[in-house]
Predict the 3D structure of the following.
Amino acid sequence: MNTLPLRRACELERCPEDRKWLVEGLWSDRAVGIVGGEPKCCKSFLALDFAVAVASGTPCLRRYAVRQKGPVVVFAAEDAQHEVRARLEGIAQVAGVPFDALDVHVITAPVVRLDLDDDCRKLSATVEAVRPKLLVLDPFVRLHRRDENVASDVAPLLGYLRQIERRFEAAVLLVHHARKGAAHVRAGQALRGSSELHAWGDSNVYMRRKGDDLLLMSVEHRAAAPIREVALELRVRGEIRSLEIVDRPIASDECQTFLSAADRIEHALAEVGEPMGVHELRKACRMRMASLCDALAELTADGRVVKCADGYQLATDA
């Protein structure tokens, strides 16, 4: 009788310490995952910062050490090639890396579709030829013509990328959009489309915009502790643009000043993850009772918040 291969639990290999991370704290070694966020949250800039860091072995965002240096393959479906070059060159200059020596390979095909067998064969052959440590695909919506809301449509595409990771030992970073107006919900739940996308990621990085200049980056891992709300900003020095960590402390109330009353309530409920009473919400959101009640009425009428025996909770948690 043919059986599946088995090993006792004590015989399974341990993960060596030097193989746990691709980028320490941000991306696990050989992880598949998503850099997600609403439009104009600098997701593509962050993805290219990962590319420069892994290709050069210099810290990502000048802070997070690279543990597995190697070639990187990038497909940027929405940006002209000269724009991709300018962004990479600027990031390399800020990182102190010679641009001509940067081991980043950019796919110049106008279209790559993960739902077409021929394109998948070509992408697999490209990865096999380069053997990158990291494959960056930006954005997911330009890589297929399937319905992102249907799990059975999305799962085969993500399954193919998982095969890329396992076959070639390459991490896969997929840039993906969040739903518009979803900044109030937990980051993974804000991703557009099927929940398969959130569940697929070993390492996921989420970007949220707070006002005109401030960005908040949060990170979650399947097998490591998360990183929550690192403040970033896009700094411009002449022709050079790069994401930089904001070293000054960002108070939670400073972040909330950029949110509407309704968003502040949803943000507070998402942070706690359980029902909150009116007085708890008023304290957490720092707003007048009248404003709080008006916003709660709006949220419950829209079905975004549900009233329960213990107070109010997000409809997604109900």
